[in-house]
Amino acid sequence: MRVGVYPGSFDPITVAHLAIAEAARDHAALDRVVLVVSRDALGKGAARVTSLADRVAVLEAVAASRPWLDVAVTEPRLIADIAVGADAVVVGADKWTQIVDPPRYGDGSDARDAAVASQPRVHQATRGGVVIPDPLPPHVERITLAEIHAHVSASAARAGALDLMLPEARAFDAETGAWTDPDRYRASRG
């Protein structure tokens, strides 16, 4: 069984997240794609409102109707560590720019290059407005999404573009205000 991991905060999960997972599954001939959420996501800070448990519950609802999709929570924060043992790692363009950013590795470009080289096959989805420098390392392949997904972002969904959220996320948001009404969400979680 070929398994790909797709790390992210999925805060909330969007139509583009699902499109990336589907494209990676098809492009890399994966049997399963695992949406992986770190308990303490790198670069996300304490500004997050929606709890890990609630985000995972929404992801599990998404995966419940898609037998090829799974959800996992992990302690590692670096994608190189999250991807250990996987056949492939799936990343969006914004995540790829983080992966190749030398300051994230402390020692700079040598540590970054070693971390990038240690990845299994990487399937990097394109995204409008994010420039990915060429050339890509030999084990990194681009996945091109339909133009309709190019500008989808979780930030825009949180700002009220509900059509960008998957139906399971929209339903949870309608019930709790998780992404579009943080005060109502906090009150509901009391």
Account of the protein in words:
This protein is α/β, with parallel strands linked by helices and 190 residues long. It has helices at 15-27, 52-64, 79-82, 93-99, 109-117, 154-158, 167-176, 182-189, and strands spanning 3-7, 32-38, 69-74, 88-91, 121-125, 140-143. A six-stranded parallel sheet has the order 3-2-1-4-5-6. Helix 2 (52-64) crosses helix 7 (167-176). The longest helix is centred in the first third of the chain and has 13 residues, at 15-27. The mean pLDDT is 85.
Q: Structural class, from secondary structure content?
A: alpha/beta
Largest sheet: 6 strands, parallel
The largest beta-sheet arranges its strands as: 3-2-1-4-5-6
Broad shape: globular
* Pattern of helices and strands: EHEHEHEHHEEHHH
Unreliable stretches (pLDDT < 50, length at least 5) are none
Strand content: 15-25%
The beta-strand count equals 6
Distance between the termini: 43 Å
SS summary, helix count: 8
The amount of helix comes to 25-40%
Quaternary structure state of the chains depicted: single chain
Task: Summarize the model shown.
This protein is an alpha/beta fold and 190 residues long. Helices cover 36% and strands 16% of the residues. Helix 2 (52-64) packs across helix 7 (167-176).
Keywords:
190 residues, alpha/beta, six-stranded parallel sheet, 8 helices
Any chance you could write out the topology, listing elements then pairs?
Layout: E1 3-7, H1 15-27, E2 32-38, H2 52-64, E3 69-74, H3 79-82, E4 88-91, H4 93-99, H5 109-117, E5 121-125, E6 140-143, H6 154-158, H7 167-176, H8 182-189
Parallel strand pairs: 1-2, 1-4, 2-3, 4-5, 5-6
Helix pairs in contact: 2-7
